[in-house]
Structure formats: structure tokens, C-alpha cells
Design brief:
The chain contains 11 helices and 10 strands. With 284 residues, it is an alpha/beta fold. Bound molecules: adenosine-5'-triphosphate and magnesium ion. Magnesium ion (MG) binds next to helix 2.
């Protein structure tokens, strides 16, 4: 079985600069380490009908990248391609191109999909805790991996809940059902469950769309915290949210990537007319 990404982390460097290349600040170079490369990807649910068309983009380590665009333009489809969630749909698949994560072609036949999803976690629109205790929800992924030692699980549960900003609210009722929490707390529980297995990348598909404004603010602040440790890709319909949480924004329309750039540029001075029309509310 092909090991997935095990030895490749150390290779995550930018192309060497030529002697004449301008000297760059090292922190800027580190910030631009590419972790996801989408390379001329087409995708179809039904053979012959591509819903993603020739998508190419690089997603940088430690950044939050937002996918925006009108309903049906392919945001969730592309997001789900990044951890092969679309594999579950018969006949669906890439019809062209390649997606590399940390340098590995994730659609290579020898890639272990379970292993891939350990590295690329996902948080869904509708929070979906398991009907288990708060503790077991967070410990779930580790137990699946065969971790059973109580001290290890205790430590992981506590640190994940702290990172998800939920610890203080639940530390006295870890044995209560995860389903007994409020919606915003359940979504943070799902985030804690995702980060407990220490993924490199977290995919979020409209994680706040079922939440009230206060819970939304809490999750947005959490996303900003989490990017210090994880690379995050978020689909959102809320353009204010994209401006608040993301470093880069990709605008999609009818299965095409119209433009991807630094978020402030997309929302103040986009290069494409179609983007301008969408962000100014004239369309979409
Ligand atoms: N399981 C599926 N089977 C067939 N077609 C699908 C399936 N899921 C999505 N599609 C189609 O693929 C296209 C892209 O859908 P997708 O869900 O990626 O859009 P989206 O940008 O996430 O939209 P929204 O903002 O409404 O969530 C749409 O035309 C949609 O109808
Ligand atoms: Mg969607």
C-alpha cells in the first residue's frame, strides 16, 4: 500500500529561487508553501456532463481560502474532491487533471483514502455529532485508529476541545450526549472531533449557515485561531464572512474558476468583470 504523505512533509519547499531572484523575507516564503494543487481538473457526476471545468489553483499552507459563487457553481463539488468524498457517488469522478496534496496525487490508485481523510478532515454545513457522549465524539477518530490508552485519549479530548473553544463549556459534562448541546456548540464539537486526529487540512462547507449570529462569530474567530495550525478551505455564501476569515478567495461561476486572489483584492478591485458583478450584488 502506498504510504500517504508520510515522508513528504519535509519536501514542502518552494522552487529554489535563481541567483538573480529578489531576496524574499523568509516568513513570506514560508507563508506561501503550497499544500493543495488543483491541476486542470474536470469533474462529472454523470459521464459526459462536466460540472467542474479546467480548474487550476494552489492553496497555501496556513491560509484560509474561501470558495464563493452562486448556487450550483461547483464549490461543494470541488471541496469534496479534495478528500475524495465524491468517491461515494457511483460513476462520479475526475474526468481530467490531477489533485496533489502535499505533493501526492490523491487519485492515484494506490492512495489509501482512509489515510487521506486523516490528513484532510471535513466539517459539514449541518453539524452532525454522533449519538455518543461529548468525550466519545472527540475520541472517535483516535479510537478508530486503535488508540485506546485512557491518558492519551484524555489528553487529546481536552486539547481538541480547548482548541475548538468548547472546553470551558463542557468540561463538567464530558459524559453527556453530544446531541444535548446547542447548535453552535455541536458545530464546535464537530470541529473538535475533526482536529483530534490532527489533520493538516480542514475543509468546511458552509459551517455557519445553520447557526445564529453569535455562534457564527464564535466559529469565525475559531477559524482565525485554527489557521495557525491548519490549512483551511471554506465554502461560504456569506461574503462578509469571506472577507472576515479568509486570506484568499476563489470565485466560481458555472463550474469555472473565474478568479482567485488575495481576499481584499477580490472584494475591492477584482480583475474580472464577472467577479465584480457578483461581489457588488448585481448578480447571483
Ligand atoms: N450528487 C450529485 N449528483 C448529480 N449532480 C450533482 C450532485 N451534486 C451536485 N450536483 C450538480 O453539480 C453542480 C455543482 O453542484 P455543487 O453542489 O458543487 O454546487 P455549489 O456551488 O456547492 O452550490 P450551493 O451553493 O447551492 O451549495 C450542480 O449543477 C449540481 O446540480
Ligand atoms: Mg454547496
Amino acid at each position: 500500500m502506498k504510504t500517504y504523505m508520510s515522508d513528504q512533509e519535509d519536501q514542502m519547499t518552494l522552487e529554489p529561487q535563481g541567483e538573480d531572484a529578489p531576496v524574499q523575507d523568509q516568513s513570506a516564503v514560508d507563508a506561501l508553501e503550497t499544500v493543495i494543487e488543483v491541476d486542470h481538473v474536470n469533474f462529472a457526476y454523470i459521464p459526459g456532463t462536466d460540472v467542474l471545468k479546467d480548474i487550476s489553483m494552489n492553496i497555501n499552507k496556513g491560509e484560509v481560502t474561501a470558495f464563493i459563487g452562486p448556487s450550483g457553481c461547483g464549490k461543494s463539488t470541488l471541496l469534496r474532491c479534495l478528500n475524495r468524498m465524491n468517491d461515494l457517488i457511483p460513476k462520479a469522478g475526475l474526468t481530467q487533471g490531477e489533485i496533489r496534496i502535499l505533493g501526492t496525487d490523491i487519485y492515484h490508485p494506490e492512495v489509501d483514502v482512509i489515510e487521506l481523510r486523516k490528513h484532510v478532515g471535513m466539517v459539514f454545513q449541518k453539524y452532525n455529532p454522533f449519538p455518543k457522549s461529548i468525550y466519545e465524539n472527540v475520541a472517535y477518530g483516535l479510537r478508530i485508529q486503535g488508540v485506546n490508552r485512557k491518558s492519551v485519549l484524555d489528553e487529546a479530548v481536552e486539547s481538541s476541545l480547548k482548541l475548538a473553544g468548547l472546553w470551558d463549556e463542557v468540561k463538567d459534562r464530558l459524559d453527556s450526549s453530544g446531541l444535548g448541546l446547542s447548535g453552535g456548540q455541536q458545530q464546535r464539537l464537530c470541529i473538535a472531533r475533526t482536529i483530534a486526529v490532527q489533520p493538516k487540512i480542514i475543509l468546511m462547507d458552509e459551517p455557519c449557515s445553520a447557526l445564529d449570529p453569535i455562534s457564527t462569530t464564535i466559529i469565525e474567530e475559531l477559524i482565525t485561531q485554527l489557521k495557525q495550525e491548519f490549512t483551511i478551505v471554506i465554502v461560504t455564501h456569506n461574503m462578509q464572512q469571506a472577507t472576515r476569515v479568509s486570506d484568499r478567495t476563489a470565485y466560481f461561476y458555472l463550474g469555472e474558476l473565474i478568479e482567485m486572489d488575495v481576499t481584499t483584492k477580490i472584494f475591492t478591485n477584482p480583475s474580472q468583470q464577472k467577479t465584480e458583478e457578483y461581489i457588488s450584488g448585481r448578480f447571483g
